[in-house]
# Entry
Amino acid sequence: MKNRYRCFVILIVAVVQCTALEAEATGFSFCYHGASTSAPKQEEQEARRMKKELLGSYHETNLLTTDNISHAYLIFMENVRSKQSSWGNSEWELAQETMNQLNARFTSIYSILRVSDKARIKVVQTEFKKLREKSVAKK
# Structure
């Protein structure tokens, strides 16, 4: 009887874990958050949209490798240069968030990157910082 009970408990735990993973993947929450959840969801959607707009096919920053991270930074900067003249503070914040995600990935693979890639990335980071500071100074 104890073995059947133990198997039953293990089965229930597995089902709960799978359900929780599926819910997380689809953005579903089991908790009631009231009416205030639409604004954060809209912000998250806007952040994802901006990230895709700025990085194109490299928008999944956690999948960037030593072979393509430098190119992802270059694509990001090309898009920032072309769009930044029409940006307000909220767009700059979203671009900064995307840069922070790129930088987190950069940091995680830094030790295995080629020196030339590190140098290219540092140039892009500096250019982004200067453009952002210039934009803030204008306003």
Notes: Confidence is low (pLDDT under 50) at residues 30-35. The longest helix spans residues 2-26. Helices lie at 2-26, 38-55, 69-83, 89-109, 115-138.
